[in-house]
Each structure stands twice: as structure tokens, then as C-alpha cells.
Specification:
With 107 residues, this protein is mainly α. It has five helices and no strands. The chain is globular, with a radius of gyration of 13 Å. It starts with 11 loop residues before the first helix and ends with a helix.
């Protein structure tokens, strides 16, 4: 998320691609958190960043978010990324961004 320029808006595929790039760069740290039962740290961080990007109108969103959407979204993305990291990151971050977007949008 830090890789997004301050002025740039991003769609879901772009956002997810950047998240998986970050997860790849921080793989050792993320897996250490998971191993030590701290996956909630990853989810809370994801939620905080997502809320901030929404508040700054940096995410191209089509509709208002329902209650619990961000928690659902964070849980899905974090679980997917942890599984991907544990498997040794066989797919590219771009492909994982596309997959996450497709799963979330059901397209």
C-alpha cells in the first residue's frame, strides 16, 4: 500500500497486486507473526490501511461498504496471502492480485 503514490487511485486488482508484492517482500516477518499466533496483527493492519485509503478516496469503490465488509475482506485476503506464503509463493504477486480480485468480485 505504501507503494501507491499519494495522488493515485487504484482499482481492486492494482490494490491486491500491491498487497501481494508487499507480502512477498515481508514474507519472513509475516510468517513469523503467523507462527507466533499474531495473525490478528496482519488483519488489523490491513483494515487500518484499507480504511485510510478509502477515507483519502484512493480506492475506486462503486458502492458504500456494508458493516463488517472490511473485516471480511481483510480475513479473506490475509488467509489467502498466508497460504500463498506458506506454499513458497509459486505464483506472481500480479497473478495473486488477479485471483483475489476475481474471488472477491466473483467474476
Amino acid at each position: 500500500m505504501r507503494a501507491l503514490p499519494n495522488f493515485q487511485q487504484v482499482d481492486l486488482i492494482g490494490l491486491m497486486t500491491r498487497y501481494f508484492e508487499l507480502a512477498q517482500r515481508e514474507a519472513d516477518n509475516q510468517l513469523l507473526l503467523v507462527k507466533n499466533g499474531k495473525i490478528r496483527v496482519l488483519m488489523a493492519t490491513f483494515q487500518q490501511v484499507y480504511r485510510r485509503l478509502l477515507a483519502e478516496s484512493r480506492i475506486l469503490a462503486k458502492a458504500p461498504l456494508e458493516d463488517y465488509y472490511i473485516e471480511f475482506f481483510a480475513g479473506a485476503v490475509i488467509n489467502l496471502s498466508v497460504t500463498w506464503l506458506e506454499r513458497g509463493m509459486p505464483e506472481s504477486p500480479r497473478l495473486m492480485g488477479q485471483k483475489a480480485s476475481r474471488f472477491l468480485l466473483r467474476t
